[in-house]
Structure formats: structure tokens, C-alpha cells
Design brief:
With about 500 residues, this protein is mainly α. The protein has a domain of about 210 residues: Serine Threonine Protein Phosphatase 5, Tetratricopeptide repeat (Alpha Horseshoe), CATH 1.25.40. It has 20 helices and twelve strands. The strands form six sheets. Strands 1-7 form a two-stranded antiparallel sheet. A hairpin with a 2-residue loop joins strand 9 and strand 10. The N and C termini lie far apart (about 45 Å).
Length: about 500
């Protein structure tokens, strides 16, 4: 279902957030906001406008630059295109679009979210049921936390905006350290956990629910336990949240598809494995500006970036995930790109576009997976190993659940003797094994760079990728955090 996107089309003309510069520098009108928020419907319209920033064709930070950045910074991909090569080679100046665009998109969402929270908190029981109000605010705080989570992992020190821009002075926000940012992220997600329903369905499918808030919070705690904060007490918090989702998966409406590829079939979008997706549709929009996913075009038509040889070599023989790194794809017996030599991320190829000549080839219906249930198992396994200074029976069970799925092919056949269960590992070996499992399971889902930074393995892994094939243009960074965008320095006097 694409309910959030459909709703957005009806309300986009009346949204009250007209600011699109770096930190939404146009002052927000408090009078206009107060007069708009007069019912639950008004609040829902505004909340949907916040969701739209995720995948918007123009400003949506998930619709190209962010994924390009996080994929190409890591060892999982490379590019022969000049602009994208600058990412892999760590030649990113403050005015580079791959530095500017994700920053702009994240802060656009944050300011919309701040506007909704500021105004929504003023709504009392005379105009809205307070539980309904808090549910909507929980959704917005989840989205705000997600945006800040990207920003702090990419830049480390950032302006921490907690309220809407209401004057020119509000643009001048000093940099906050990662501890303050993470504290605010945790505060938002704890609110969301308490305010959101356990699981959304029906017309609300695709919205952030309690499972999404808990999964994101578990991921936040796992990151806080690593570099740069190294707060190892957070491993237990991450493990407990992940374990709750696993143990009560039926309550949360969660599960794993039997075959890895089923997780990326369009009919399964928002299904049991998808904890939170960015919603897309290739048939909604204005004229040719459809609000579809551009990943199909990037990974298949243009091949903006290719999987690295290093990634391809990491898969064990018989791993059902390995065929999703390939040079061609077969659909209904027809081989597409039969003579192609470049590796592609085939999990993001829209098969319907290939078989239907009338389809728009520029955008896809496929949702982007922000958090899949498979990742929750790996969070639990990693944290459990660190808590106990070595893997426990639970840690093995959780990681081996993901490895077991990798033994099953698309016909439901389970191969013997391939992708064996992990066993008899010490703490360091298990840690490395789970990091590798994340590499294989979550490839091209925007997680690898963040994993390398938090585990302090950037240099080690990128040098290994370069050794696997030296002409794939990898570079080792002198700093794992990005420069503050030039436009931000020029506007924000507090960080000059």
C-alpha cells in the first residue's frame, strides 16, 4: 500500500512549510500554524507532509544522494562516473552536492517536524483526543530522530534545532557535540515508543509504529556503544529492545520471508519483514515528476555505482544472497543485459519495468527498506556477544537464523553444506562474523559505512577492498566525518 503518498497528493497544496533552504531560513509563521491546527485532520495532514520529505523527487533525502553517499563511502561499491568517484576517493569538498543535498534534506524534514511538534503540543483536549495527538507527534518524532541519526553519523557535530524557525535569529544555531544529539534522538524515540500503536495496518500501513521506534532505538543504542561515544553500557539496551521484537514478533506483525529475494518483491513492500519503508509510487505525481524510487534507474539503467569485487567475493558458495550481485537478471525466462560486464545491485531492479514496455522507466514502485526485521536479529546477536564477552546460545541462534535463510533458494530448496551455522567462536571472531553478515545481508541498504565507522574498521576494510581489485577507486579517509556544507557556513553565523 502507498497510503501516505496518496494522502500527500491531496494536501501538498496547503502545507504550511514553504522553506527549502539549508536550515529553512524563512521564518515560520506562528500565527498561520496556530490557525491551521484546529482538528485531528489538520494534524494528520501536517504529519503526512513530514513523511513526504523522505522520498520526494526533488528534496527527498532518500531519493538518491544519501544512498549514493553511504554506499560509495564504504567498501561495498565503486563508480566510474566523475562525480560519484569523488565519494569513493574521499575527495568531498564542502560545496560538493553529495555533502550538501543530504544535509539539506535532513534539515528540511527536521524543520517541518519541529513545526508540527511546536504547534501540535499546543492542541488540547477541546479540539483533539490527546492519545490521537500524541500518536501523530510520535510519528513525527520518529522521523525527526531518523534524520538526526543520519546527520550525527555523517557529520558528528551539527546544529541541534529543537524548534521551528520563527525568526532570522533562529538560523544561527551553534554546533552540538554527538552526545547532545544522541540524547535528543533517544528522547524522541522514547516518546514514540510510548505514544505509537504496536502495529499499523489497513489504511495506516507504512506509517511508523511502535516496532519501528523500538528497532530504530535499538540501532541508535548499538551505534552509541561504538565509535565515537563508546558507551558500552548501551549494548544491553540495544539487545533488550531487539530481543523484545524477536520474542514478540507475532504481536508486532513481524517475520522473515523464507527466501531472501522475497524481501525485495514489490508485492511484499510493507510486509512482515519491513519494519519501516520509504514509500514510493511510479504513477503518482505531477506530469512526468512522479514520486517513484530512482534506485532502479541508478543501479540498472545508468549503473551509477557497482558492487565492489570485494563484496562479491565475501559470499560463501551457495549463498542465496550472492546472485543479487550480478551482471544480468532473468525474468520469466528472459535474460536482461545478457552481455553486460558491470556488476549491479539486482535487489533494487524493478522486474515490472523490464517486462512491461509501457512502464515509466525512470522511477519504480519499490519501497526503500530503512529497517528490515533481519537487521534486528543481527543487532541482538552483536550486542549479546559484547555484553557477555563472547557469544552465547542466544547470540548464535539469532545470527544463524539469518544464515539459515541464506541456504534456501527461490524454489524453496535448502542446500546442504552451504552457509553453515556459526559455532565455536571467541568474542573477536564472532564480532567479525556478525559484521560480515551485516555486509552480506544488508548490502546496498545504506548501513555499511555507518557500520565501519562505529566499529572502527574503515581503514582495514577499505584497504581490503582496494586489494581485491585496485582499479575500483577506493581511498582511505583521514577523517571519517564530512565537512559542514559551504552553504551552512555562509548562512549560520554561529558556526563561522
Amino acid at each position: 500500500m502507498k497510503n501516505i503518498k496518496f494522502i500527500y497528493l491531496f494536501i501538498s497544496g496547503i502545507l504550511l512549510f514553504g522553506c527549502h533552504d539549508i536550515l529553512d531560513v524563512t521564518p515560520y509563521s506562528t500565527l498561520t500554524a496556530d490557525s491551521f491546527y484546529q482538528s485531528a485532520t489538520d494534524l494528520e495532514i501536517a504529519v503526512t507532509g513530514v513523511y513526504d520529505v523522505l522520498g520526494d523527487k526533488g528534496s527527498g533525502y532518500y531519493n538518491k544522494e544519501l544512498l549514493n553517499l553511504t554506499v560509495l563511502l564504504s567498501d561495498e561499491a565503486h563508480s566510474t562516473r566523475q562525480n560519484e568517484r569523488a565519494i569513493s576517493e574521499f575527495n568531498l569538498a564542502a560545496d560538493n552536492k553529495f555533502v550538501q543535498k543530504p544535509w539539506e534534506g535532513c534539515y528540511l524534514l527536521i524543520n517541518r517536524a519541529n513545526s508540527v511538534v511546536d504547534a501540535g503540543e499546543k492542541m488540547d483536549e477541546s479540539i483533539i483526543d490527546l492519545d490521537v495527538r500524541d500518536r501523530y507527534l510520535g510519528e513525527v518524532k520518529f522521523l525527526r530522530a531518523l534524520s538526526y541519526f543520519h546527520l550525527v553519523r555523517l557529520w558528528n557535530e551539527i546544529p541541534l534545532k529543537k524548534h521551528a524557525t520563527s525568526s532570522i535569529e533562529d538560523v544561527n544555531v551553534p554546533l552540538s557535540g554527538p552526545q547532545d544529539v544522541y540524547d535528543f534522538i533517544v528522547e524522541d524515540l522514547e516518546f514514540a515508543v510510548n505514544a505509537l500503536p504496536v502495529h499499523f495496518g489497513g489504511n495506516d500501513l507504512g506509517r511508523a509504529d511502535q516496532a519501528a521506534a523500538k528497532a530504530l532505538l535499538a540501532k541508535v543504542y548499538l551505534t552509541m556503544a561504538g565509535y565515537p561515544l563508546k558507551q558500552t553500557d548501551k549494548y544491553e539496551l540495544a539487545r533488550d529492545l531487539a530481543k523484545d521484537l524477536i520474542d514478540n514478533r507475532d504481536t508486532y506483525g513481524l517475520g522473515l520471508w523464507s527466501y531472501y529475494g522475497d524481501a525485495f518483491e514489490i508485492p511484499n513492500d510493507n510486509g512482515k519483514e519491513d519494519i519501516f519503508d520509504v514509500q514510493y509510487s511510479s504513477t503518482i505525481g505531477v506530469a512526468t515528476q512522479f514520486e517513484g524510487n530512482k534506485l532502479h534507474k541508478d543501479v540498472y539503467q545508468l549503473v551509477v555505482y557497482s558492487p565492489s569485487t570485494y563484496l562479491k567475493k565475501q559470499f560463501e558458495t551457495g549463498d542465496a544472497r550472492e546472485p543479487f550481485i550480478g551482471t544480468n537478471i532473468t525474468v520469466n525466462g528472459t535474460i536482461y543485459k545478457e552481455n553486460n560486464k558491470k556488476l549491479m545491485f539486482l535487489k533494487w531492479v524493478d522486474k515490472e519495468i523490464l517486462i512491461d514496455s509501457k512502464r515509466n522507466t525512470q522511477v519504480s514502485d519499490q519501497d526503500f527498506k530503512v529497517i528490515r526485521f533481519a537487521e534486528v536479529y543481527l543487532i541482538a546477536a552483536e550486542a549479546e556477544n559484547e555484553i557477555n564477552s563472547g557469544p552465547t546460545a542466544d547470540a548464535y541462534q539469532w545470527v544463524n537464523t539469518i544464515r539459515a535463510r541464506a541456504r534456501m533458494d527461490s524454489d524453496g530448496n535448502v542446500a546442504d553444506g552451504v552457509v553453515p551455522d556459526l559455532a565455536d567462536l571467541d568474542q573477536d571472531s564472532f564480532r567479525a562474523a556478525v559484521l560480515k553478515e551485516r555486509f552480506l545481508e544488508l548490502h546496498c541498504e545504506g548501513t555499511r559505512w555507518y557500520d565501519l565507522v562505529r566499529t572502527e574498521t574503515v581503514t582495514e576494510q577499505i584497504e581490503a577492498a582496494e586489494a581485491a581489485k585496485s582499479n575500483e577507486n577506493f581511498g582511505v579517509p583521514t577523517d571519517v566525518f564530512l565537512p559542514i556544507p559551504y552553504d551552512e557556513y555562509s548562512r549560520n553565523e554561529a558556526i563561522n
